[in-house]
Amino acid sequence: MDSLDLPHTSSFKGGSELFLRDVFENILKTYLTKNPTTKRIWELVQSVDNEKICYDHFTFMTLKIDGYGIDSMSSFFMDNGYKIGGGLDFPKKNLRGLWFSPPDINIPEDGHGLSNGPLPRLVMGEIFVDELSPASQEIIRKYLKPTGGKQALLSSILGSLIWEKPTWSEFKQIAEENELAAWAFINGYTMNHLAFAVHRLKHRFSEFNCIIQYLEENGFDLNQDGGVLKVSTDGLLLQVSSLSEQLPVVFSDGVVKSVPASYIEFTERLVLPQFKDLPHDQIKEIHRREDFALNNADNILESSVLRQMFKIFWFDQLCMKQKSIKYYFHSVCLSSP
Question: Which of 24, 182, 267, 334 could pair with 195 as two cysteines, CB 3.0-4.6 Å apart?
């Protein structure tokens, strides 16, 4: 982890910069502890040429019901200087997203990481539970008790669910209808993914071709929806993400199944056309594309759930069919004269 011995601290509404950075450190620590493959990529990036990293954004997923939605996570950060930057709607996924810009703070010239680097943007999504089927709504409402969302930030730091784990059949019911809702239901407020700021990297990983080649050579699966390299329609936002690993979960009925966990992303924000003639050493974050792109975001969401989750179900069903076929032929053979 990064050291928190800051060369300076600045105060703003809600507390100190040091406290805010400490919160991010603990969220990051939990995220890396719970996702071994993601941690390997995180360590790999920093090990190459002793790279100094900065973060573009941290992303969280929530369920919009009884105070568990975006507000349950965003209120703390907005009290500490974050502001709403914009929104993204995904009606086919019953999902709304908001992104938040960080407070304006002093960043040392060589600042990096969470210790004294730029604070990450925040992206928060919420699944509209009341748009799901009555069966899925009933399951979610059964577990998410009123006022529980007040513990959202603590849940993200600890990596623990606020509610009890469901049964496998309950989880499967939700997953077959809305994979993102199922992801949030079983992973809770654990960070969905973080994104490195590629435009701040200095060495090998400052080029996407090198990022893709290096990750693939080291055996990491990349999200190929919309192409491995996702490019916004204006060409100014570039993104690459890994696929989430499948980690075993013991459900409340004792069934053990692997479900998608978190993943990691690389984001580059190119210089806006009106600033293209600025000398390289004068280019700041404000000179680069600021917000997010709907087409990119829609494809990035595929990293943790779509098809990955259903591969598990399809595999289970295939195994059951194979066992049935094997049993049938075994019975025929035994009954034959």
Answer: 267
Whether the pTM exceeds 0.85: the reply is yes
According to the model, what pLDDT value does residue 305 have? 62
Q: Tens digit of pLDDT for each residue in 236-295?
A: 999 999 999 999 999 999 999 999 999 999 999 999 999 999 998 889 999 999 999 999
331, two tokens: 């019975």
Place of tokens 């006022």: 147
User: Is residue 10 predicted with pLDDT exceeding 60?
Assistant: no
Residues with Cβ within 8 Å of 264's Cβ and at least 6 positions away in sequence, in order, are 38, 41, 42, 193, 194, 195, 196, 241, 242
Using alpha carbons only, how large is the chain's radius of gyration in Å?
22
Please count the CA atoms within 13 angstroms of the CA of 245 that sit on its side-chain side.
Answer: 16
Residue 71, CB half-sphere, CA atoms under 13 Å: how many? 8
**What type of residue sits at position 166?**
P
What's the CA gap between 68 and 144, in Å, rounded? 8
d(CA 295, CA 25): 30
Task: Report d(CA 186, CA 202) in Å as an integer.
Answer: 37
Dihedral of the alpha carbons of 204, 206, 207, 212, in degrees to the nearest 10 = 70
Q: Which residues make beta-bridge pairs with 90?
A: 95
